Amino acid sequence: MRRTLVPLIENPPASPALGGVVHTLHGQTMGTSWSVKLVAEATRRLPPLRQAIQTRLDTVVAQMSTWESTSNLSIYNQSAAGSWHALPDDFFTVLEYALQVAHASDGAYDPSAGALVNAWGFGPNQRYNEAGFIAPTEQTLEAARAQCGWQRIQIDAANKRVQQPGSIYIDLSAIAKGYGVDLVARELLRLGIDSFLVEVGGELRGAGVKPDGQPWWVALEHPLPDALASAASNTAIGVETIAALYDWSVATSGDYRRYFENDTTRYSHTIDPRSGEPIQHGLASVTVLHADCMAADAWSTALNVMGAEQGLAYANQHDLAALFINRSTDGFEEHLSASLLALLQ
After folding, report:
1. How far does Cα 272 stand from its chain's mean position?
2. Is the full-model pTM beyond 0.85?
3. Which of 116, 201, 216, 231 is the Cys-Cys partner for 197 at CB 3.0 to 4.6 Å?
4. Has residue 191 been placed in a domain?
5. Closest by CA position to 208, among listed 220, 195, 218
6. 249 lies in which domain range?
7. For 154, left (φ over 0), alpha (ψ -120 to 50), or beta?
8. If you ran DSSP here, which 8-state letter would residue 42 be given?
9. What is the Cβ-side half-sphere exposure of residue 323, based on CA atoms within 13 angstroms?
10. Distance between CA atoms of 44 and 215, rounded to whole angstroms?
C-alpha cells in the first residue's frame, strides 16, 4: 500500500521547458554524501554547476564543523570566556534559528549540547577501546552538563556577533545539513535552475517539476525498509509514504542512523539535552516536512527528543507536519500529526 502527501500550494509549478533533461550530480560533504538531480537543457555544462554546489557546502563545513579545527565554530568553542565573535552570515543565520528552536522547544533541541555529544562519543572524539564502546562515567556527564545551556548564549543581532560565556561548546550537526540543502537550492535558483531535488545525508528539498510534468516524489524514511513489505505490526507498517516536494523539504531524525551498542544496551546518537542521556523512549524516528530544510532538520531532532506522545502533541499545537514511528512489542506504530494528515491525498 502507498499513501501520498501533496503540499497545499496556490500556484503549482509551470510545465518544464521543452528539451529539458534530468542531470545528476554527486559529491561528499559533512562526513556524508550529497546528490542533486536537476532539469536543464541537454547541452548544459555540468562541471561549473557541480563546483558551485560543492562550494556552497564547503562554506557550511568551513564555518560550522566541529570536526575542522580551523572552522569558525571550532574557534568559538575554544575561545575565552567573555569574548565576542563576529560571525559570517551563514553561521549567524543557523545559530540564530537554532536558539529560536531551543527556546520554542524548551531545550529539547539545544545547540549548546556539544559537550554531551562528545561525552557520549558522537563528536570528533570517539569513545572506543579494544572491547568496543565505552559509556561515559557519571562524573564525565556531570562535567558535560555543566558546559551546556542555550540560555547562556548571548547574540548581538545588529552586528551578527555571539558571546562565549565560558566553556560553551556549540554543535550544529542537527541543523547544518538542512541548511546546506537550503543553500544549494538557493544557489541553483540563482544559476537559473528552477527544477531540482537536493539531498544531503538523507535530508531533501525539491522544487519545480520533472520533464514529464511530475513532481519530485520521495519516499519518507523508515527505520526498517524491509518492513514495508510486511504487515507484522498493529498499524499498517506495509504502507509506504511518498511526498511530492513542490518547494518543500523533508528531514528525518532516527535512532537507527547512528548508535553504539554495549552488551545489550543501545545508545542512540540523539541526546536529550535536558537529561544528558541518549533518548530511550522507544521513538525510532521522526520525519518533518517544512518549506525550509533547516527548520525540518532542527524540528525533527526536537520532536524526536520529546518522544511520541509529547512530540505529537507539540506538533499538533504548532502546526508541524510530522510522521512519528514508534517501536512497540508488535513492531512499529505510526502517528501522523494533524498538519501531515492535511497533506494526504
Report:
1. 16
2. yes
3. 216
4. yes
5. 195
6. 2-61+174-341
7. beta
8. T
9. 29
10. 21
